[in-house]
């Protein structure tokens, strides 16, 4: 049975292996159609995020088959991309509420091993992470590269994230999306036919 949990340091090698297989810089152009992750993490960066309870994983036996990263903006500011996003965050509003560095968090990347896609792993892991992060933040913020159609469709169609703005960074075009973390994602069953529970 697939298990959803917070990552520990024992899971870092599995996370890095999954990242390497799906990192945009490691893929050929035709492989990018199946989705990709943009942000590379080092061993130390994952370790630091684990200490903040910000790495959520799906395990099949002991194998990491999916991961999702979530953290406060203060953690992400070490990356130029997120520093740029934070620079205009407070010009945006969602459901009548101005976004701030304190009432929102940055979600992603999320990655699912290719052979497990289409089996609700994505939805289950997102829901598990959302439930945990909703205890601290009312608004989720993320970005998707405009050429990453698979990720866009999955987040907008399956989960209901909303595009709040668009922006350019490092010669790439991105959607910025938001989600109300009080809104539960309805998932009937996990891929093994069991009701979802963390």
CATH architectural name: 3-Layer(aba) Sandwich
Q: What is the helix/strand order?
A: EHHEEHHEEEHEHEE
Helix coverage percent of residues? 25-40%
Rg to the nearest angstrom?
16 Å
Q: State the domain count.
A: 1
- Strand residue content: 25-35%
CATH topology, what is it called? Aminopeptidase
From the N-terminal CA to the C-terminal CA, the straight-line distance is 12 Å
Mean pLDDT level: 88
Counting DSSP H or I runs of 4 or more residues, the number of helices is 6
What are the main properties of this structure?
alpha+beta; Aminopeptidase; seven-stranded mixed sheet; disordered C terminus
Give the SSE layout.
Blueprint: E1 2-6, H1 12-22, H2 43-51, E2 55-60, E3 63-71, H3 73-76, H4 80-87, E4 93-94, E5 97-98, E6 104-112, H5 121-133, E7 139-145, H6 149-159, E8 162-169, E9 172-180
Parallel strand pairs: 6-7
Antiparallel strand pairs: 1-2, 2-3, 3-6, 4-5, 7-9, 8-9
What does this structure look like?
The protein is an alpha+beta fold and 198 residues long. It has helices at residues 12-22, 43-51, 73-76, 80-87, 121-133, 149-159, and strands at residues 2-6, 55-60, 63-71, 93-94, 97-98, 104-112, 139-145, 162-169, 172-180. It has one domain (2-180): Aminopeptidase, CATH 3.40.630.30. The protein is 28% helix and 29% strand. It has a seven-stranded mixed β-sheet with strand order 1-2-3-6-7-9-8, with helices on both faces. It has a two-stranded antiparallel ribbon with strand order 4-5. The longest helix has 13 residues, at 121-133.
């Amino acid at each position: 049975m697939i298990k959803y949990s917070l990552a520990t340091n024992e899971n870092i090698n599995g996370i890095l292996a999954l990242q390497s297989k799906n990192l945009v810089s490691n893929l050929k152009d035709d492989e990018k159609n199946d989705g990709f992750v943009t942000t590379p993490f080092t061993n130390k960066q994952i370790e630091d995020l684990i200490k903040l309870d910000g790495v959520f994983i799906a395990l099949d036996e002991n194998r990491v088959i999916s991961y999702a990263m979530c953290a406060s903006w203060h953690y992400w500011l070490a990356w130029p991309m997120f520093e740029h996003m934070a620079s205009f965050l407070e010009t945006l509003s969602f459901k009548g509420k101005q976004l701030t560095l304190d009432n929102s968090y940055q979600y992603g990347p999320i990655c699912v091993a290719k052979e497990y896609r289409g089996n609700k792993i994505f939805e289950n892991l997102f829901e598990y992470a959302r439930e945990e992060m909703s205890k601290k933040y009312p608004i989720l913020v993320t970005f998707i590269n405009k050429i990453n159609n698979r990720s866009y469709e999955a987040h907008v169609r399956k989960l209901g994230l909303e595009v709040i703005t668009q922006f350019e960074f490092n010669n790439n075009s991105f959607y910025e999306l938001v989600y109300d973390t009080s809104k539960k994602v309805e998932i009937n069953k996990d891929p093994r036919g069991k009701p979802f529970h963390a």
